[in-house]
Design brief:
By secondary structure, the chain is of the alpha+beta class. It is 30% helix and 20% strand. The longest helix has 8 residues, at 13-20.
Length: 149
């Protein structure tokens, strides 16, 4: 899930990342930024990291994506993707990652996805998908959520 943020004079990527609970790397990746230069009035797409959908876990020495995913009964590739990582990436002690809550289904969009195809994957109507997700861009890497009932 994403929000649109209009850059204010003096904003830095670091400030925006902290404000929205994301990382500078994620902001650069989502917005195809090659540097840290921002212009007032520019619009950035920022991931929504609502506590409604996630809990947060602080990485401990010896942790791995696979180990954490197994502990929480989550697909390791989904866990990595939700956190802007690759499955094989090294994670660091004290790094904070999002753990998806069990009462939701999650889908990270891919190139070529449509509302209908995503609705089919999540087994939900198109209208319900639109209602449960504030803004849908269908950009590659957007997180869409469906509440399990």
């Amino acid at each position: 899930m994403y929000n649109v943020y209009r850059v204010l004079g003096g904003d830095t990527l670091d400030d925006i990342a902290k404000r929205f609970g994301t990382s500078v790397i994620d902001l650069q990746s989502i917005n195809n930024l090659t540097d840290d230069v921002l212009r007032a009035g520019e619009e950035l797409i920022v991931p929504e990291t609502s506590k409604k959908y996630f809990e947060y876990y602080t990485v401990k020495k010896g942790d791995s994506i696979y180990g954490i995913a197994k502990r929480y009964n989550i697909n390791p590739e989904l866990l990595a993707s939700l956190n802007g990582l690759n499955y094989t990436d090294y994670i660091y002690p004290e790094q904070v990652i999002m753990i998806p809550k069990a009462n939701y289904s999650y889908y990270v969009t891919k190139a070529g996805d449509t509302l209908d195809s995503v609705a089919g994957i999540l087994n939900v109507s198109r209208d319900k998908l639109l209602n449960e997700n504030n803004i849908i861009y269908l950009l590659e890497g957007q997180l869409l959520v469906k509440e399990k009932r």
